[in-house]
């Protein structure tokens, strides 16, 4: 009944022999409580958040549904272990493409130990966290029946430069991503990033909330951006979704906005807008060029 | 002809015997080039920026006008020294109230020495820079003919807590700021922070630019917020102004937005909006209360 999630792109993997998450067939995601206190802090967050009437419904939909906690046999066979029971975000998606983007120009939180802060500062500087205000911490990209998924290893993802991030955000919505050195065509950009229900609009909705909310500070949280090409081709909605995950380091906002999250979110929004406007421009160019022969024929008559 | 500025609230002061800025009677501000390379970097910024056609005019007005550089006798008598010649922002203002707000949740810049970064990190954590995404680095507040200016010392300003910042932003637009423990009345909030040409609208205009511009990253820059009560009482415009100052650590944006500045700016905007909405609410309450006796009289008849 319980199995390792097929589409996990970051975090502890069951396959590493570590304590990892499990899923069932009914759309539940079981996340084991880590022993270092992070698990119980995440449980406490969900318990507070799920009954917090200050969070509007249109924002709540960006969070996985919380079903409580449950004792389960741990994935690594180490005995019974308490798990968070959450909505399995990718449940029902066939071959989903997924980006895990850790938001913020710093991932440490006030009150952490000096050692923890030092470790975070070092990693934040080494990745794009400091320069971009976010870093990609995992991804999988479905390229098609033949080539399957592009799912770079953890080390490769952690070494992404600013240009790599720019390129991944293009490849993510391209139909020719599997073809070696070809320039990503961004052909899915208008339907995935664009449109009234697309990724950009969802991110802008989140941004508007973050400009105002002073309830929570989401340290070291990720945005999961996902879609499946089948839904896009069929035209089913929502083709693309944004979800927040990983709440072990959420602290009270105490009347201050989460400027660290907001700054990083704005940076990601700008990157995605750039892909979208580039793809709009190139489709305009393509249209102009495809009209040329037509004009010529008319002149020829 | 040259004299020490009357209304400087932060930075090196001539009165410390240090090399400080000078002003003249024609609205010019002379800023000596510091020997540690910061001065020449700031000069280079102004030379690039002043001819940068990518900066729209409605944004350029947030920057002091740059008139070039000039050799002048240094304020501390140490001989001839190159000075930036800038617009004197407070020229023509009588008894201006001024806030110097250093924007960003980090003040260090990529490429700085380890020692410099360490010093910044320490100060950023000790002040409200990390928690708020900005810190007040100087202020003067004109209280009236009798009490003159409230201009707390550097040490006092550097020890401002989050609550102090909240309180200063209220006192800044209050008519009873000089009266000991009385709650700031925020009576100038609607005319200084609010309105179509007020501080909030100006900050929102800057914010819109920062959401899009990827040309410059403004590390360790300040926003100067200033007004004079005389202009407010007379109804002359602009009663209040926002200006960016201190450009020694501006770096190229390289296609990335300045998420550090933007996050801090959004945080300041939220604080100022809060003052404004509180003052609107209290004026509604005041109106309701002042109507009460009137209603009673009617009922009594």
Automatic annotation (TrEMBL), chains A, B:
Similarity comment: Belongs to the inositol phosphokinase (IPK) family.
Enzyme Commission designation: 2.7.1.140, 2.7.1.151
Recorded catalytic activity of this chain's protein: 1D-myo-inositol 1,4,5-trisphosphate + 2 ATP = 1D-myo-inositol 1,3,4,5,6-pentakisphosphate + 2 ADP + 2 H(+); 1D-myo-inositol 1,3,4,6-tetrakisphosphate + ATP = 1D-myo-inositol 1,3,4,5,6-pentakisphosphate + ADP + H(+)
Pfam families hit by this protein: IPK (PF03770)
Biological source species: Hibiscus syriacus
EC category: transferase
Protein name, as recorded: Inositol polyphosphate multikinase
InterPro entries (alphabetical): IPK (IPR005522), IPK_sf (IPR038286)
Keyword Protein transport: no
Keywords: ATP-binding, Kinase, Nucleotide-binding, Transferase
Gene Ontology BP annotations: inositol phosphate biosynthetic process
Molecular function via GO: ATP binding; inositol tetrakisphosphate kinase activity; inositol-1,4,5-trisphosphate 3-kinase activity
